[in-house]
Write a structure and sequence with these properties.
Length: 230
């Protein structure tokens, strides 16, 4: 007599979640389901829903899972190097795509694309990071560079270093971007003072500062939109 052993329940579930993505995309997915779908391409023969939920519980959010280091991800039981690298690949691929998207755009007429890219790259960083986007006469991106990484409290940015880099890129304009690890994107007194210093230094060489964007987990603030930059 032949005994048929039923397939584990998770096999059908893995099949269904892939079919849902194929037909509907990610819009109707919950955060843990997106993580679960990712993991199906790295971990075989396992029910991945509990692991996906554990990752989000451990790191606090979907975004934080993607921002976690490979080493920290591997501290979660069930996540090996292959799975951790796959999660890092998804995060870096998103940022690579958005960076390529802004490369040939007029950033001033398409500010939402720049904000989207910078939010993806910076919103969940544990420390403050200051980056500069260097633009040509058509407001297209020549370079996007992190010029300083600081502590949670303060970033030391030197205007001369930024201007020297602008000259080497033949940039005619800049967009300043930094994140607030605290979550609130509200510009501080230090942010305003630093912006004024960079604007002043840039003006001596006819380089324009188009905007200073502050990124937080709770949104962003634009100096230009709020009338803080003339």
């Amino acid at each position: 007599m032949t005994v048929t052993i039923p397939a584990p329940h998770y096999k059908e579930h893995r099949k269904r979640i892939k079919e849902r993505f194929s037909s509907e995309g990610l819009v109707p997915f919950r955060d843990y389901e997106v993580i679960e779908l990712m993991l199906t391409y790295a971990i075989a023969q396992k029910d991945l829903k509990p692991l996906a939920k554990e990752l989000i519980a451990r790191f606090g959010s979907f975004q934080a899972v993607l921002e976690a280091s490979v080493e920290d991800l591997q501290q979660v039981k069930g996540i090996g190097e292959h799975a951790a690298l796959l999660i890092k690949l998804f995060r870096d691929a998103i940022q690579y795509y958005l960076r390529r998207t802004i490369k040939n755009l007029d950033i001033i007429s398409s500010p939402a694309d720049l904000v989207k890219y910078c939010t993806s790259a910076m919103a969940h960083l544990p420390d403050e990071q200051f980056r500069v986007v260097y633009l040509n006469a058509k407001n297209q991106v020549l370079a996007d560079e992190v010029v300083q990484t600081g502590t949670v409290d303060q970033t030391a940015v030197y205007p001369r270093k930024i201007i020297e880099r602008a000259l080497s890129e033949n940039a005619v304009a800049l967009v300043l971007v930094h994140n607030h690890p605290s979550g609130s994107p509200e510009p501080s007194v230090h942010d305003r003072s630093l912006t004024a210093s960079i604007v002043s230094a840039a003006a001596t060489l006819d380089i324009r500062v188009h905007d200073h964007i502050v990124i937080g987990r709770n949104g962003y603030r634009s100096f230009r939109e709020e009338g803080l930059l003339q």
